[in-house]
Design a protein that fits this description.
- The chain has 174 residues and is mainly α.
- The chain has one domain.
- Helix 5 packs antiparallel against helix 6.
- It is globular and about 55 Å long.
- It comes from Marinobacterium aestuarii.
- It holds the Pfam family DUF2390.
- This is TIGR02444 family protein.
Length: 174
């Protein structure tokens, strides 16, 4: 496993763009979507690769996400709430944030290893592939298209692919 890889670098750059962190956290909190999965879908499109959703649900990264990353996040949320009344918990909270970030890096390393050898789809534009990948992921998660979700996805898509016309995302179906 290679922790420092192209997907990790890409994820850090995309996540740092204006509005992306907030959009990703909203997608995670309101629709229970995996931020790393969304970033993976975007990265795959820049690489010219289509998401192979059937492999995504059974891969090491998914097992890691459920067994490690999500429990760390829930614990961090619990400590975050408690530290409002117990400021002494700040060091514990910060340690949990670092542990969660390290777990996310492991998850992205497994996603990188999974997707780097998928075939390149030369005949599909990056913007189209990006919308296709995200649509496939959302379909696998059982998420229905709805205006609020699509509006938040617009922020991520435009940060990843440039000025994608809003109507393309808002009309996204899967």
């Amino acid at each position: 496993m290679k922790l420092h890889n192209d997907l990790w670098d890409y994820a850090l750059q995309l996540y740092a763009k204006p509005g992306v962190e907030s959009a990703c956290l909203q997608l995670q909190q309101e629709w229970s979507l995996g931020v790393n999965r969304l970033l993976f879908c975007c990265w795959l499109a820049t690489e010219g690769r289509a998401l192979q959703a059937e492999q995504l649900s059974t891969c090491e990264a998914s097992q890691w996400q459920h067994s490690t990353t999500e429990p760390l996040r829930l614990l961090r949320y619990r400590v975050r709430a408690q530290r409002q009344h117990e400021p002494e918990l700040e060091l514990c909270y910060q340690a949990l944030r670092q542990a969660e970030l390290a777990a996310e890096q492991v998850e992205l390393a497994w996603l990188f290893a999974l997707g780097r050898d998928w075939p390149v789809v030369a005949s599909v534009a990056c913007e189209d592939l990006l919308l296709q990948n995200i649509g496939q992921y959302l379909c696998c998660e059982g998420i229905e298209p709805e205006p609020g979700l699509l509006a938040v996805l617009q922020v991520l898509v435009q940060a990843a692919a440039g000025p994608v016309p809003a109507r393309r995302v808002l009309q996204l179906q899967w």
